[in-house]
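Ligand-bound model needed. zinc ion.
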Amino acid sequence: MEHRTSNAEHRTLFSDYHSHPQGHRVQRYTQTLLQPWVDSAREHGLSDIAFTDHDRYHEGIDFEEIERLREANPDIKIRAGIELDNDPVHSPAGRRWVEKHWDKLDFVLGSVHYLERDDQMFDTVPEGAEQFAGREIDLIYADYFRRVREMAASGLVDCLAHLDLIKIHGHRPTSDIQTLVAETLEFIRARGLAIELSTAGRRKPVNELYPSDAIIELAIEKGIPFTTASDAHSHVQLGENYERLAEKVKQFGIREVAAYEHHKREMRPL
Ligand SMILES: [Zn+2]
Ligand SMILES: [Zn+2]
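Prediction:
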């Protein structure tokens, strides 16, 4: 499998700041659940990982279990995190949970998974593509990036996840979105937030990294920091497709990535 052979090729990349130990349901954190993630990190040459389960599964997160895991694995930095999204049903409780546990968390990702429909994430594959059918794609893009700015303004996130997730099913805007993207990045820069370079899109119909080259270029111009991420929903996906990400990082001359401890950012060299 590809991930088994990728170690040497991405040796510059050492962190994965987007992972889902609980997958798609509540699974209480235990050493049995978490240890395979650390083993996988080690196997893939990663020394710094963040657990960022979806906020709707916050009940499964146990900070004491994370602490025990750290004690058992002192060679790997393990960050306590969460992926906060704009789920109209669950995220109000998710936001309260993040506020309450802010000091115990190292890192919070902000994501937009919902557009106008309350009952379906637009990024479910293939069902979510329904939300684009017969619609003006440019308007959907504008609406999506407005929601990203809203998330960035929440004051509860350190980094924005998969910034151009809206392309997931392969829908492309018909007009230039450079202004829209520039406004959004400016908003992110002004709030001192990072964005992630994610390989997750390689597993999706769009089959591209998030975000696009044009967005990476603009983010570099603005001095916005990056994290590296796989959005793994299984421990075998940790660091997945990092050899491609390493190429991208090299292509853009990116020399450092952001690491977080108690929301404090430290730029670490690659
Ligand atoms: Zn997400
Ligand atoms: Zn995720």
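The radius of gyration is 17 Å.
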